[in-house]
Design goal:
It is a single chain. The protein has 221 residues and is mainly alpha-helical. Among the domains are: 1-65, no CATH class; 139-213, no CATH class. Helices cover 67% and strands 0% of the residues. It has helices at residues 2-13, 29-47, 53-60, 68-75, 81-87, 92-95, 99-116, 120-130, 139-155, 162-177, 185-213. The longest helix is centred in the C-terminal third of the chain and has 29 residues, at 185-213.
Amino acid sequence: MLRFLYAVRHVERRPATDTRRGRPSRWRRDDLLRAAGELRAVLERATSGRVSLSSFIGQYLPLLNFPADVVEALSSERINLQEAAQLARLTPERLDTTPHGARKLRREIVHSHFAMKGSQNALRARVSELLGESISVSSTEMTAVVQKMDKLLEIDPADKHHFFYEEMKRLFYAMRQIEPEDVDDAGLEAFMRASDELSNVLYGFELKRRQRTKVPHKLSF
C-alpha cells in the first residue's frame, strides 16, 4: 500500500509523455491518477484543503515508520512535523549504536530543543552533524564527478546512471551561485522537504556501498 501511494504522488509529477525514464511502474497510470483523485477528495473533506495530496504522502504518511518516542514528542507539541522527520533519521543503524542508545539521544535532543526554544534549522543542523553529513565539496572533487559522468556517457550513452551525477553537479553549482537573499521562506521550506527525501535516498546508496565493501571475517579454527 505504501509503495502504491508513493507511486500516486510520483505519477502526478511526471507528464504522460515522460514514461521512458527510470523503472516502469507496477501499476497502470490511469489507476494511479484515479486513486490520486479519490484521495484528494478525501483530504479536501477531512482537512478543508489544508493538507494537499503531496504533503499527505510525503510528510504525514512517513509517520507510520517514525520511532514511538518521536511520535510522542510530536503529539505533545514539543516538536513540529519537520523536526520530527529529522529526529526520525537518528536510527540505531545510522548512529551505529543500540536502539536504547538512539532513543536516549533523541530524547536528550528533544528536551534540549524544547527547553531552549530552538529553531528548526538548529535542530536540523544538529542531526546532520550527528550523522556526519556536514561535508564540503572542493572544485577538484567536483571535477572528478564531471569526469565520471562523461566516462559513463562514453561507455554507454543509454546508461541512465549519469543523471545522478548531473543532478549532483547542478546542486553544487547552485550552492555557488544562489545568494541568501534569493531564498525566501516558502522556497526554503520546499527545499527542506525535498532534501529530507533526498537524504534518505543517498543514505540507501551509502548503505549499499558499505555492504559491498564490507570485508568478511575470517574463520578461526
